[in-house]
Amino acid sequence: MAAPLSVEVEFGGGAELLFDGIKKHQVTLPGQEEPWDIRNLLVWIKKNLLKERPELFIQGDSVRPGILVLVNDADWELLGELDYQLQDQDSVLFISTLHGG
Amino acid sequence: CRDCFRAFYIHKFRAVLGKNRLIFPGEKVLLAWSGGPSSSSMVWQVLEGLGRDSAKRLRFVPGVVYVDGSQVGLGHCGPSRLPPPLPCAARENPLPTPMMLPPGEQGHVLWFPLKSFVELLTGHWPRPILGSPVGVTPFYPHFSEGAACGQSWKDRARTLADVKLILQTVGFPWHTVALEEVFALPPSVLRCSAQEPVGTMGNYKVAVDSFLQQEHMLGAEGVGGSPNSTQGEEQLGQPCTQDPQHPAGPPPADQTEALSRLFDSVKTLTAKEELLQTLRTHLILHVARTHGYSKVMTGDSCTRLAIKLMTSLALGRGAFLAWDTGFSDERHGDVVVVRPMREHTLKEVAFYNRLFAVPSVFTPAIDTKAPEKASIHRLMEGFLLRLQAQFPSTVSTVYRTSEKLVKAPRDGCAAGPRCLLCMCLLDVDTADSATAFGAQTQDCSQMRPPTPPAEAPTVPCCSTEVGRVQNCFRGTKPCGREDSRARVIEQLCYSCRVNMKDVPSLDPLPPYILAEAQLRSQRVWLPPRASPEIQEYLVESSDD
User: Do B303 and A53 touch (CB under 8 A)?
Assistant: First the structure.
């Protein structure tokens, strides 16, 4: 049983367009059976925060290629990608590298 | 490790510049800034590089240009989606409060005329607020006819303000141009100027040594004289320059109309993107030439170049890959386009910008939120990035391939006719009727007054020229629409021709393109070639 988590979710590089233009979201993830990891977080974001065009952000289980994910300013590849377990007061940043030049 | 990453990143930038030895000390270099992460990173690198101690300092004189293409940069919000209603306050007072800019500023201020979107909602066309002469100008959002996107005028104005702020922070002399100004460009933009002698290794070393000597002497004498180094300092202190070409006012509404008409008339997103790219290049080239910049730096990153390489292949630009994706692009002659960010991947750029707080401005582009298959560019981007996710060396492999491309002119003839739009040497062969390209040219010639069908390879040459003669020399008969279109199409390379297929009418094109096409087609008659001229007389007399 995981306690509710307070996490800061941030979007950059154009990804905020899909979230009403709001870059920073302070979210409180409700308590649930399994511990929160990035996989669950993505599902949660898709259900609650994503306003339009889910295919531009999420592809299958993971994010679309071209979107960088940083957890506490560290590349998520170093932390186990989707399996990283979220801690309280973590900061997850999604940067879209696709837009602009 | 943050510090190692930073050192590595900066080193790559300097190494790319140093390895190619194209930028001479004291040279004026224009940085093409789009607001996006790569070009912002590039501008920041230049800023940092110029500020260092003298031994490793970058030694050129920079300026920044920002092309505002937001009039056409509206994404796809879905055909059935209506634009969100303006907030009530806006409805009563549809114009934002004027942006107050610092009084001393003289930079050219961008202007967005209001479009029919607000007219629809409010039922009337709001009158502009007149501000004080210098620097205070109202900003209006612009929405093109077809695709009004979710961006409100507030966002648009905010973007503009961010752009201004960043340009001021950077401190280089800056120029902003609106995309509408393509309608005011002179045809000379499309002409390749005489080439400057390309600096050899020996020249470069000599130039650097003499520059260092100069600096040393000046330092010893303690005089802040006229040579380039101190001039560079002075220019850095200058906040901005006013572009002499434009008055400090809005581009005329008819230009914006013309621009949106042009882009609305283009049928596919691929052609739109290519056209936008071409127009933007011409604008930047014009700014560079007007202000005496001999080099232009663009922020194309490794990932972008790999995508560009594959996209160019798909678009039929295979012959020009070396110019499109190489480090330097000398097709314009006097102005050389340089790509210093080409060894940095987008991921590195994003990380750097995040970790070291490089400011950038997000502006929606023409392909924002476009679905995957909307254009060839999007398709290729999706393809490469997905492949990259599973095979991490994809992008670098494609990029390395681009490094190996050599710029050899076709058949050894360096001075041939150039494409009207992209200014590359024409890769066309009018006698080549057997290829797909030849079939395309046949199509063009058939649009004219009937000429004998082409059987032998040489006949299309003559018949096209004969056709042209018939149109030009028969003063009484006006040149038909198809003829003027065919005349322009003839002067384009293969990929530009394919793009033009998606442009149903050439009328909305900016006048400088059509004027130059006219000029060139008349000029073609000058080279002394006996047989076509004789042919011409024969046909005319037989018709008479």
Answer: no
